[in-house]
């Protein structure tokens, strides 16, 4: 990432999360608020649960609404899709790269650990942000 150091978030709720996607569950297209995200796939589903992304769809200077609309219509030829293997470490710059997880198929859930790092120590969510993300403050 070109950073001199990385610090785990100093937040008891946001530092590490494990997300479970069961049959039919997915994560819709979005951009991340953080500059990059670090994940490890703990368990792969039997099928589906693919990671799809479209690199550099926007920039801080250009929100590229037309390009976002093209992606949402399923007409972007630059869309990429990967099937992560269990144990795969994925370091992903999601602020300007749109991404989603396709619906999980089968009985085995997709389990992914999400780690939140920053280039400075002591970063925490506000209590309002914690309530928005997790339904409670800590
Ligand atoms: Fe994301």
What is the element layout, followed by pairings?
Elements: E1 7-8, E2 16-21, E3 27-30, E4 37-43, E5 47-48, E6 51-54, H1 65-72, E7 80-82, E8 89-92, E9 98-101, E10 104-105, E11 110-115, E12 117-118, H2 127-134
Antiparallel strand pairs: 1-12, 2-11, 3-9, 4-8, 4-11, 5-10, 6-7, 6-9
Bound molecules: fe (ii) ion.
Fe (ii) ion (FE2) binds at residues 30, 32, 37, 94, 99.
InterPro entries: BesD/HalB-like (IPR056470), Oxoglu/Fe-dep_dioxygenase_dom (IPR005123)
Pfam families: HalD
Domain Fe2OG dioxygenase: 12-121
Commentary on this structure:
- The protein has 138 residues and is mainly β.
- The protein has a domain of 96 residues.
- Helices cover 12% and strands 33% of the residues.
- The strands form four sheets. It has a four-stranded antiparallel β-sheet with strand order 2-11-4-8, with no helix packed on it. A four-stranded antiparallel β-sheet has the order 3-9-6-7, covered by helices on one side. It has a two-stranded antiparallel ribbon with strand order 1-12.
- The longest helix has 8 residues.
- It is globular and about 40 Å long.
- Bound molecules: fe (ii) ion.
- Fe (ii) ion binds next to loops.
Task: Round the Cα radius of gyration to an integer and report it.
Answer: 16 Å
Gap between N and C termini, in Å?
30 Å
| Total beta-strand segments | 12
Helix fraction?
Answer: 10-25%
Low-confidence stretches: none
- Mean pLDDT across residues: 95
Query: Which distinct ligands sit in these coordinates?
Result: fe (ii) ion
The SSE order reads EEEEEEHEEEEEEH
Globally, the shape reads: globular
Structural class: mainly beta
Number of helices: 2
Q: How much of the polypeptide forms β-strand, as a percent range?
A: 25-35%
Q: Largest beta sheet: what is the strand line-up?
A: 2-11-4-8
Largest sheet: 4 strands, antiparallel
Domain Fe2OG dioxygenase: 12-121
InterPro entries: BesD/HalB-like, Oxoglu/Fe-dep_dioxygenase_dom
Protein name: 2OG-Fe(II) oxygenase superfamily
């Amino acid at each position: 990432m070109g950073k001199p150091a990385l610090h785990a978030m100093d937040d008891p709720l946001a530092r590490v999360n494990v997300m479970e996607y069961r049959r039919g569950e997915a994560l819709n297209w979005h951009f991340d608020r953080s500059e990059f995200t670090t994940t490890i796939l703990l368990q792969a589903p039997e099928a589906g649960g693919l990671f799809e992304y479209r690199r550099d769809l926007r920039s801080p200077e250009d929100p590229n609404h037309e390009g976002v609309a093209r992606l949402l219509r399923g007409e972007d030829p630059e869309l990429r899709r990967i099937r992560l293997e269990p144990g795969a470490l994925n370091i992903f710059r999601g602020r300007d790269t749109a991404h989603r997880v396709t619906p999980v198929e089968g009985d085995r859930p997709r389990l992914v650990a999400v780690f939140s790092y920053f280039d400075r120590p002591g970063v925490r969510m506000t209590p309002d942000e914690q309530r928005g993300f997790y339904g409670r403050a800590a």
